[in-house]
Amino acid sequence: MATNMFVNLPVKNLEKSISFFKKLGFKFNAHFTDEKATCMVVAENIFVMLLVKEFFQTFIRKEIADAKHMTEVIITLSATSKEQVDEMVDRAVQAGATTPHGRQDHGWMYGHGFQDLDGHLWAIMFVDESNLRQMD
């Protein structure tokens, strides 16, 4: 049996976050969606739970970090091409995201990223495995 991965992120406005990520092409599981949370499907076994901050707070005793001013994690998703990296970041920016830094092209690895509406950092990365094998 495959292990599922759930990343839980606090969000200020659930409806705006859902709209934002739909513009990037993500789908949501209606069975795990209500006014406090939603389940964004990233891949077959990878999910992001977007939880309104007040609900998120019920799971922890510590203060919620303000992702617009501090970073605890960068969520990295793979892409199948450099073009797919650029397309995803472009869609994110059109939907209201910002880009914390420019594209990074190392030949065998290409990446770019965005900061979502709540300040969470997302990296989109393409690794050219044919070039990677040549480096061995």
Quick synopsis:
This protein is an alpha/beta fold and 136 residues long. The protein has helices at residues 14-23, 53-57, 82-94, 129-135; strands at 5-11, 27-29, 37-43, 46-52, 74-78, 104-105, 109-115, 121-127.
Write a structural description.
The protein is of the alpha/beta class and 136 residues long. It folds into two domains: 1-64, 2,3-Dihydroxybiphenyl 1,2-Dioxygenase, domain 1 (Roll); 65-136, 2,3-Dihydroxybiphenyl 1,2-Dioxygenase, domain 1. Helix content is 26%, strand content 33%. The protein contains four helices and eight strands. The strands form two sheets. A four-stranded mixed sheet has the order 1-4-3-2. Strands 5-8-7-6 form a four-stranded mixed sheet.
Topology:
Elements: E1 5-11, H1 14-23, E2 27-29, E3 37-43, E4 46-52, H2 53-57, E5 74-78, H3 82-94, E6 104-105, E7 109-115, E8 121-127, H4 129-135
Parallel strand pairs: 1-4, 5-8
Antiparallel strand pairs: 2-3, 3-4, 6-7, 7-8
Task: Name the descriptors.
136 residues, alpha/beta, 2,3-Dihydroxybiphenyl 1,2-Dioxygenase, domain 1, four-stranded mixed sheet, 4 helices, 8 strands, Glyas_Bleomycin-R_OHBP_Dase, dioxygenase
Secondary-structure arrangement, i.e. CATH architecture of the largest domain = Roll
Q: How many angstroms separate the termini?
A: 33 Å
What is the count of structural domains?
A: 2
Shape: globular
Number of helices: 4
- For the largest sheet, list the strands in their spatial order: 1-4-3-2
Task: Please tally the β strands and state the result.
Answer: 8
N-to-C SSE string, H for helix and E for strand: EHEEEHEHEEEH
CATH superfamily of the largest domain: 2,3-Dihydroxybiphenyl 1,2-Dioxygenase, domain 1
Quote the CATH topology of the largest domain.
2,3-Dihydroxybiphenyl 1,2-Dioxygenase, domain 1
Strand content: 25-35%
Q: What CATH first level of the largest domain would be assigned?
A: Alpha Beta
- Bin the helical content: 25-40%
Gyration radius (Cα, Å) is 16 Å
Output the structural class.
Answer: alpha/beta
Summarize model confidence as the mean pLDDT: 94
Poorly predicted tracts of residues: none
